[in-house]
Recover the amino acids of this structure.
């Protein structure tokens, strides 16, 4: 692959990452994604099941409890893995 092509791919990836930062959380974790990969219909149910009903509640939740919730109720081994998978799926469905 030529340098110009590599630079274009890097630029495209940067634009996608920038666009992902502007996505509403509920769109990022679509109901389809949640049903396929978790025990929940939507991201709101996922949060509520562990007592998270606000940003403040999420920030107060110990990371160990959050990771345990992800491992127990999803196919993922960590929150980061879940985020990465949701991002990849969102990008495939909306940018390519």
């Amino acid at each position: 692959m030529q340098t110009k092509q590599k630079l274009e791919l890097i630029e495209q990836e940067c634009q996608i990452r920038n666009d992902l930062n502007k996505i509403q959380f509920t769109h990022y974790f679509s109901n389809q994604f949640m049903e396929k990969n978790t025990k929940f219909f939507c991201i709101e149910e996922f949060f509520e099941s562990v007592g998270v009903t606000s940003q403040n509640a999420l920030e107060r939740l110990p990371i160990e409890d959050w990771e345990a919730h992800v491992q127990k109720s999803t196919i993922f081994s960590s929150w980061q893995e879940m985020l990465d998978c949701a991002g990849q799926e969102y990008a495939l469905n909306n940018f390519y």
Q: What stands out?
A: The mean pLDDT is 81.
